[in-house]
UniProtKB/TrEMBL annotation:
Similarity comment: family membership: Belongs to the binding-protein-dependent transport system permease family.
Keywords: Cell membrane, Membrane, Transmembrane, Transmembrane helix, Transport
CDD domains noted in UniProt: TM_PBP2
Location(s), subcellular: Cell membrane
Region described as Disordered: spans on this chain: 1-34
Domain of life according to the entry: Bacteria
UniProt-recorded name of the protein: ABC transmembrane type-1 domain-containing protein
All copies of domain ABC transmembrane type-1, residue ranges: 94-272
Membrane-protein topology: Multi-pass membrane protein
Record keyword Nucleotidyltransferase present: no
SUPFAM superfamilies per record: MetI-like (SSF161098)
TM stretches of this protein: 43-63, 100-119, 131-156, 221-247, 254-277
One GO-annotated biological process of the protein: transmembrane transport
């Protein structure tokens, strides 16, 4: 009778089959968070925002019932908005303010992006104007209203200039910063391949600068919105700013609070659009070196 074959004290792993490879014993596929947890994570900010909105409306209602002269209730404020909407006052004011906002912001975007790119290519100009840009950005434009009024009067050019000045500086600064962050290796490679100045701008500078410029545009939208109301409030009582001024001088708290609510909703909507545009172009920043 033959002796049994010797066996190893350790088990022998079966040979790999074609197309497969052996995995370590502790290699467990990483599982994402449960679906319920992801849903809760997405809904939590919305729930917090909704709760804050309800608390704010409750406090507003309480203040309106406590002092009806100083604080109109949300119902009275919405009723006042409906009244000036039906007689055509509010639509006309919104059209006037929207036209001013679009014109001033468009001019600020063109000038801000153009000058920001110019600063990135002219280092001497950038080093000599950096301090001036930050100094002008810190000056409240409302303080310049008397000077603008004396130079341009009460018309549309004066109000457009106010909106332009409030929006152009963040756009310029962010655009110049984005162009300044372009890797020098890319510029050197472009010059090595004898790329023209136009190709350098088109293929190197602009793709890296656009995400930063969009951040400046988002900030410029908020500043232009404030500048529009300030121009209508201080230079010429027109548009939504003019309605706010007229209602406040008449102690019409319902119209004032209703217009304030409308302005807040419009500002949130504009900022949402700005964030969406910025988020779209921010993907360029993530994939660029």
């Amino acid at each position: 009778m033959g002796t049994p074959p010797a066996t190893s004290p350790h088990p022998v792993a079966p040979p790999d089959t074609p197309g497969t490879s052996a995995l370590p014993a502790d290699a467990v596929p990483a599982a994402g968070p449960p679906r319920g947890r992801r849903v809760v994570r997405r809904l939590t900010p919305l729930a917090i925002s909704a709760a804050g909105l309800l608390v704010g409306l409750g406090l507003w209602q309480w203040a309106g019932q406590r002092d009806p002269v100083l604080f109109a209730t949300p119902g009275r404020s919405l009723s006042a908005l409906a009244t000036i909407t039906e007689d055509g006052t509010l639509p006309s004011a919104l059209l006037s303010s929207g036209r001013l906002l679009v014109v001033g912001l468009a001019l600020a975007i063109v000038a801000g992006v153009g000058f920001g790119l110019l600063l990135s290519r002219a280092r001497l100009l950038r080093s000599s104007t950096d301090w001036l840009l930050f100094a002008l950005q810190s000056v409240p434009i409302v303080a310049l209203a008397p000077l603008i009024l004396s130079a341009f009067g009460f018309g549309l050019p004066a109000k457009t200039l106010v909106v332009f000045l409030t929006a152009v500086f963040p756009i310029t600064v962010n655009t110049a910063e984005g162009a300044h962050r372009v890797p020098t290796t890319l510029l050197e490679v472009a010059r090595t391949f004898r790329s023209s100045e136009w190709r350098i701008w088109k293929d190197v500078l602009l793709p890296h600068t656009v995400p930063y410029a969009m951040t400046g545009v988002r900030q410029g939208i908020a500043m232009a919105f404030v500048g529009t109301l300030a121009a209508e409030f201080f230079l010429n009582a027109s548009g939504v700013g003019g309605l706010l001024l007229a209602a406040s001088t008449q102690f019409d708290s319902a119209t004032v609070l209703g217009l304030t609510l409308l302005v807040s909703v419009l500002a949130v909507a504009l900022m949402g659009c700005g964030r969406a545009v910025e988020g779209y172009f921010a993907r360029w920043r993530e994939v660029r070196p």
